[in-house]
Design brief:
A: 122 residues, mainly beta, seven-stranded mixed β-sheet, 56% strand, globular, B: 114 residues, four-stranded antiparallel β-sheet
């Protein structure tokens, strides 16, 4: 259980276009999802926290008009990179907190991660 | 503010040997969770082991165990009988009990040498 998927796994786009990345929790409800960015050989950098039905909370230095996040349901969050530029090329990872369906409590405060999306902007 | 420090950017170990990865953290919170995640070349983040701060007993998961020293704010990972599949980046992570955010260390790249 606790599987998180991301689509697409890789995307190449031209500068100036927008790219949407989907993050889905496949077998559990995720009231909170997280979006990270990872540069080569570096750690994960939290971009934003996405709560179902409300606006995302962005970390300092992350442009919310550039990185649009929508958490429309308990199993889906999307990250849209608008007007992408080469400096947006990176590995984007989402994660979700597991909610115990029986108690509605977060399970061990654990996050399960998607497999990531590699974005290349030409 | 919470910080997580991994002071070993790269490490290597011979297959079947034991290796210890270091992690220290800084927090004023008393209730929190600590994690070790593995990121192999596939880039998928995999939970290796977790530790609740209120538990004194060190967590173990098969070949993986931790040495949790709460007073010293230290959380090292020991990998016994290292296998080639253990080659990966290892991230130490911290989360306060009432919070949402994970704080990650900078990672340790571990190579298991055949």
């Amino acid at each position: 259980g606790a599987v998180v998927s991301q689509h697409p796994s890789r995307v190449i786009c031209k500068s100036g276009t927008s790219v949407k990345i989907e993050c889905r929790s496949l077998d559990f409800q995720a009231t909170t999802m997280f979006w990270y960015r990872q540069f080569p050989k570096q750690s994960l950098m939290l971009m934003a926290t996405s709560n179902e039905g409300s606006k995302a909370t962005y970390e300092q230095g992350v442009e919310k008009d550039k990185f649009l996040i929508n958490h429309a349901s308990l199993t889906l969050s999307t990250l849209t990179v608008t007007s992408a530029h080469p400096e947006d090329s990176s590995f984007y990872i989402c994660s979700a907190r597991v909610v115990d369906r029986r108690t509605n409590n977060h399970h061990y405060n654990e996050q399960f991660f998607g497999p990531g999306t590699r974005l290349t902007v030409l | 503010a919470q910080t997580v420090t991994q002071s070993q950017p790269e490490m290597s170990v011979q297959e079947a040997e034991t290796v210890t990865l270091s992690c220290t953290y800084d927090t004023s919170e008393s209730n929190y969770y600590l994690f070790w995640y593995k990121q192999p070349p596939s880039r998928q983040m995999i939970l290796v082991i977790r530790q609740e701060a209120y538990k004194q007993q060190n967590a173990t998961e098969n070949r993986f165990s931790v040495n949790f020293q709460k007073a010293a704010k230290s959380f090292s990972l020991k990998i016994s009988d290292s296998q080639l599949g253990d080659t990966a980046m290892y991230f130490c992570a911290f989360m306060i009990d009432t919070g949402n955010q994970f704080y990650f260390g900078t990672g340790t790249s571990l190579t298991v040498i055949p």
